[in-house]
Amino acid sequence: MWNWRGRSEEGRGIIPVSLDAADVSAWIRARRQTLPDTRLGRTLVGVAFVLGGLFSFLPVLGIWMLPLGFVILSIDWPFIRRRRRQAEVSLSRWWRGRRAVGT
Asked: pTM score, two decimals?
């Protein structure tokens, strides 16, 4: 088993012999991140995600950061919250219409 500290439990080396998806999934689920308690902190995190999404052509940064940044910003900013809610409503109506046509 791999312990994520640079060595296997058997102590054989730094690189794991086998690493299955269940171990990776358990490691990811064990990590919990919370948003900052202050409005300024949440705004800075949200803006950082939006800016990271704008630079999606770079490795690690990606388009996935845009919606996450807007969701974080919508906690404190009513203008963004209204736009997010409008997008949610229109997307759900589109999805319901698509499912109705398919059945």
From this structure: 0.61
